[in-house]
Amino acid sequence: MDGPSRSRRFDTAAAAAVPALPDWVGAEVERRSLRRVQRREVRGRRWVGRWVAVTTTGWSALAALSPVGAVLGGWEWLLLGVAALARAGLGGRELAELHRDDAALRLPGANAPSPWALRGSAAAAPLRRGEAALGALVALARSLGDSAGPSGGLLRGAVTGAVEVVDGLRLGAGRMVACETAMRAITDPQRRAGLVRTHDELAAAMVASAAGLDDLLVAAVDVVGGSAPTTADLARLHADTELLREYAGALRSLAG
Q1: Is residue 21 exposed (0-12), middle (13-18) or buried (19+ Cβ within 10 Å)?
Q2: Coil, strand or helix at 64
Q3: Do 97 and 192 reside in the same domain of the chain?
């Protein structure tokens, strides 16, 4: 059995087992799954990019040498030079599109707490929901390919908003784990009151943000799943994306 087949079988088995995992493990599995998918796509894009760059360089060199060929061999070289110049221009455009697509779908950059740190934490469930929703949104965005219509643009914007929220969820989870550790260490009720208040505010913000990601995912599915999304579907996706950015800002402020 070849490597890709083994990889697909492993991914299928892992996907079937993920729902049964506890949240503190599931969050890490969802995060690693998305990172693995992105690494595969990046490798493929790098190979395509190298091939396009080499062929573009070759066409450019041929276009530059065509006047010399025309002098030595005839006017047909000029036609070949024009064709090579046009092909080099198309190659440059394709390279620019590859770089733009790589920048369009980035992953969260914030570090998340380890699975063992999340064990027993109230941050595990909303963090897992956020990681899973982001993975589904990225898959939906990639299913549209290079669509330049309103659906593609809005969905890529939704992914960007979801990345900001998941970054906030990871930062919030780290602070919540720290608060829970401090709460276990401090027994004086008055001294614990401030920690409890901060913990509860973070927990409420994380739960609300995870719910917002769920709503955004539903709106994205409505847009992608229909043959022709209505104006109302597009407006809902845009509104949910803007609301999600507000959640991301709130999480960043709470997480410090």
Answers
A1: middle
A2: helix
A3: no
Contact 255, 202 (CB under 8 A): yes
CA 152 to chain centre: 14
For residue 206, which of 129, 98, 133, 147 has the smallest C-alpha distance?
A: 129
pLDDT digit string, tens, across residues 111-166: 888 899 899 899 999 999 999 999 888 888 877 765 556 677 788 888 888 888 99
The range of the structural domain enclosing residue 74 comes to: 1-104
CB 140 within 8 A of CB 77: no
Which residue among 83, 104, 125 closes a domain? 104
Q: Residues 173, 178, 196, 22: what is their CA dihedral angle, to the nearest 10 degrees?
A: 50
Predicted TM-score (pTM) of this structure:
0.69
Contact 27, 111 (CB under 8 A): no
